[in-house]
Design a protein that fits this description.
This protein has helices at residues 7-17, 58-77, 135-147, 157-175, 178-186, 250-269, 284-290, 320-323; strands at 29-34, 39-44, 81-86, 95-102, 151-153, 188-189, 201-202, 209-212, 231-233, 239-245, 273-277, 299-307, 324-326. It has 327 residues and is an alpha/beta fold.
């Protein structure tokens, strides 16, 4: 066990962790560093939960799992061995993981190579080119998911069409659900609302309106007017991948979140742009239809959109002081 971990080092680790994606960029996590034991604890920030869109906190756990994976990568990059215990306290369901850091690092496990991608990975709602993703890259992404106990499947054309239809159905469901409309408005920033915001999705990250194409990119503007917003042609045949797990409980969601982030960082290393679409998965009846019966995947946790597109700006992040307590 390391004898001492400086506050500056802990702050740097948490800053890297919080570059992870989360639903509506709500950043539903907090960290606690225990000086005596040298352990870092990851907690769910349930004040940032979405009871209408995510009533079981599944998406919350996915985001926290992604932050946990970033923390692991950052620790290895810093020469420390992270040992993770998921859900360590049955009496405290908000404590999602404890990470203990040993020194020196015993094995990198391919994590250190992913570190530069942590701050290069940004969710892109821009059009991607119609270029095929090479089979060897898809194989690397599948292997990355497997290393975290998850499965990544690339659906065939008929299944992609069905997924796109499910997204369309989800949009219809959302349009008549006042609670979900209110949650969306809470976490999106238009015009002057962007100034000083350190969470949520700012207007510049909405991407263009869809003039043509079938890419499943959620329009966060909804019916709200946005002056000067451009329109663009998106992919007619988007490249999608399903990330899934055998089980469907909090531990599975945390593992899926780690697998999701490993896949996203690997994709970034390989020059891919990425976005996440959970739209159809937010409705239980549609989520079950999203799985491919031809695979052994039990539960779909996320749909990834992959391709080659322009660089995009990062969305804002909360200051580390707001999410880290040192005790």
């Amino acid at each position: 066990m390391m004898e001492h971990l400086e506050t500056e080092a802990v702050t740097a680790l948490v800053k890297d962790a919080t570059a992870a994606p989360s639903m509506y960029n709500a950043q539903p996590w907090t960290f606690r560093f225990l000086r005596d034991s040298g352990a870092l604890q990851l907690y769910a920030d349930v004040g940032r939960a979405m009871p209408r869109s995510d009533p079981d906190n599944r998406a919350l756990c996915l985001g926290c799992g992604a932050a946990l994976f970033n923390l692991r990568v950052a620790a290895v990059h810093a020469g420390r061995e992270p040992t993770v215990e998921l859900l360590p306290d049955p009496g405290d369901p908000h404590l999602l993981a404890t990470v203990r850091l040993t020194d020196p690092m015993r094995t990198a496990g391919g994590l250190a190579e992913l570190y530069p991608a942590i701050h290069r990975r940004h969710t892109s709602r821009e059009p991607f080119r119609e270029t095929e993703v090479p089979p060897e890259v898809l194989a690397a992404l599948r292997h990355g998911a497997e290393l975290e106990g998850a499965q990544l499947a690339v659906p065939g054309l008929w299944h992609v069409q069905m997924l796109l239809d499910l997204v369309h159905d989800a949009e219809g469901h959302d349009s008549v659900d006042a609670g979900r409309i209110e949650e969306l408005a809470r976490w999106t920033r238009i015009g002057a609302e962007e100034a000083g915001a350190d969470d949520g999705i700012p207007e510049y990250a909405f991407g263009p309106r869809t003039r043509d194409g079938r890419a499943p990119v959620r329009d966060f503007a909804g019916r709200r007017p946005m002056a000067g917003r451009r329109a663009a042609v998106f992919e007619r045949a988007p490249h999608l991948a399903l990330l899934g797990t055998a089980g469907d409980g909090p531990e599975d969601w945390l593992r899926a979140g780690q697998a999701m982030e490993r896949v996203l960082l690997l994709a970034t290393v390989h020059g891919l742009s990425t976005s996440l679409t959970s739209h159809a998965l937010e409705w239980n009846d549609l989520r079950w239809l999203a799985r491919d019966p031809a695979t052994a995947m039990g539960y779909v946790q996320m749909v990834l959109r992959l391709g080659y597109g322009p660089e995009v700006r990062a969305t804002p992040r909360r200051p580390v002081d707001d999410v880290l307590a040192i005790v």
